[in-house]
Design goal:
By secondary structure, this protein is an alpha+beta fold. It contains two helices and four strands; from the N terminus they run ααββββ. The protein has one domain.
Length: 86
Amino acid sequence: MKCLLSFLGVKRMQARSLVGLSFRLLVIVLVIAASTRAQYTANIQGNVGDPSGAAVAQAKVALQNTATHISATTTTDAEGGYRFLS
């Protein structure tokens, strides 16, 4: 790296500054990328019941993202509960 930097006319102090700046920019990009990813995750859960309030076991529950048209299905448990994990 020293040969490359001297070939480009970069002095030692400038090289350290350039490396430090590059590292800071990399950290900033990674933090922004991680926070962007966090905005698109969620878990959805609930319970299915009949009109009298009793749990409905083995009911099929469907979920669809209207923006992307991606869908998922699940079946309720013995207590009528369901969960969609991202």
